[in-house]
Amino acid sequence: MPAVPTARERARRELTADILEAARRQLAESGAAALSVRAVARELGLASSALYRYFATRDELLTALIVEAYGDLADAVEAAAAPRRGRSRRARFTGGCRALRAWAVEHPHEYALVHGSPVPGYRGDERTTAAGARAPLALLAVLDGLEDPAPVARLEPRLAEGASRIAAAGAGAVPPRLVVAAAQCWTALLGLVSSELFGQLANTFDPADAFADATIEALADRLGL
Amino acid sequence: MPAVPTARERARRELTADILEAARRQLAESGAAALSVRAVARELGLASSALYRYFATRDELLTALIVEAYGDLADAVEAAAAPRRGRSRRARFTGGCRALRAWAVEHPHEYALVHGSPVPGYRGDERTTAAGARAPLALLAVLDGLEDPAPVARLEPRLAEGASRIAAAGAGAVPPRLVVAAAQCWTALLGLVSSELFGQLANTFDPADAFADATIEALADRLGL
DNA sequence: ACTGCGCAAGAGCACCGCTCTCGTCCGTGA
DNA sequence: TCACGGACGAGAGCGGTGCTCTTGCGCAGT
User: Fold this and answer.
1) Which one is the CATH code of A65-222: 3.10.20.310, 2.120.10.70, 1.10.357.10, 3.80.10.10?
2) Residues of B in contact with A33 (CB under 8 A)
3) Which of B1, B36, B158, B192 sits a CA distance of 20 to 30 A from B10?
4) Annotated domain spans of chain B
5) Chain D: nucleotides under 7 Å from a protein CB?
6) Cβ contacts (< 8 Å) between A215 and chain B: which residues?
């Protein structure tokens, strides 16, 4: 393990970064299905076979992009939902939701890559699932410290189990019932953004800003914020 | 225009149906991205070029499958949400939602085809959008005749506009505010089902039945059913 | 019976992911 | 210092894809 990286290692790192950059650009321009190893190689002036020294497979290149996309998305959500002086819980929550939508609108192909239909045959591994948990956990963290709105009612066992699994993954002191409600809001948020991006709202709420804002406010209402 | 179809015409119709059937099977087995004109041709013992007499393009074959899928899905939802003696509005709504989820779980690739990320470069035409409107309209029809829960509050103009566009597309006598709420529930429902099918719920609410049922009940609550 | 059109087949083009081989050049241990 | 092993890039090649064009056959209407 040399303290100073050798020339080979530097070159390898740089070329890896270049490959990722070119792949990122192709993804942003034409989407995941159009991302081709050969096209990336062409863009870099390399033989396509050379790329396989850096990414054993197209799927591995895609995985790297997925992890990047999850990370970008989570950065945006975390920044918007972070606690700050004078920022109410509700503002943190709605801000986080709006940040997610804004990121998705700005990076539609990346959003589709992580929250659209999975590439067939593709299986996410622990890297992608870990990266994917950050954004919803950032929203869940907004609820930290709230009290159970209906502490006397029993929570369905399977829901309680799911909530406990989420708690184990990083929910602080959020009551299980609220964890369930937050998960429902999370899927609703994904549905909102996916519907907008994938054209399900065509001819109805087409510039979807007002609809999205109203929906996000409704989610905040539902969580009692 | 012969009253009795000629042998050629019958053959053409049959072969078209055979092609669609084989394509449907491939779609159900391996997903849209893996659907290949050549493979369909192989399965039918034809030259791949012969298929192009029936579907000018792979996308056109896909469009036919999309329309079919939308239709199947709408059939399921409409049947479950239809008015029937002794069936409450709430039962019709939750039944329709559950029918959508059940259909999606049973036909994951078809669901992904219509409600997942769009195939890049693919553009839906009026056929697909018309077919896609049936299922949400069936759920909206459950609300027909209900009264505005907050008639005094003003509805944001852009939301009112969207609601009126939906009304023009077939919402009966549903107050605009409820149309907006129903649209929000529709996107939430899609988010629920997509999250389950696309693996976003992995390691949390994994057998998602309880979570889905609870979410659907919450949607019904939100609509005041 | 003849003619024209619908049809299926095959070859072919440009692209894809991926593999294998081959010469080269760098980094390291002797 | 030098030799060797391993990392590297290039290129050819395999089997797959969507799609086009040409060719020949057989049915259908005049």
Assistant:
1) 1.10.357.10
2) 33, 119-120
3) B36
4) 1-56, 62-222
5) 7-13, 16-22, 27-29
6) 184, 187
Instruction: Tell the CATH superfamily of the B1-56 domain.
Output: Homeodomain-like (1.10.10.60)
Name the burial class of residue B101, with classes exposed (0-12), middle (13-18) and buried (19+) by CB atoms within 10 angstroms of its CB: buried
Q: Which residues of chain B have pLDDT under 70?
A: 1-5, 119-124, 171
Please write the tens of the pLDDT for every residue from A40-94. 999 999 999 999 999 999 999 999 999 999 999 999 999 999 999 999 999 999 9
* B195, B209, B214: residue with CB nearest A180: B214
Where does B62-222 sit in CATH, by number? Answer: 1.10.357.10
Chain A closest-CA separation from residue B38 CA (Å)? 18
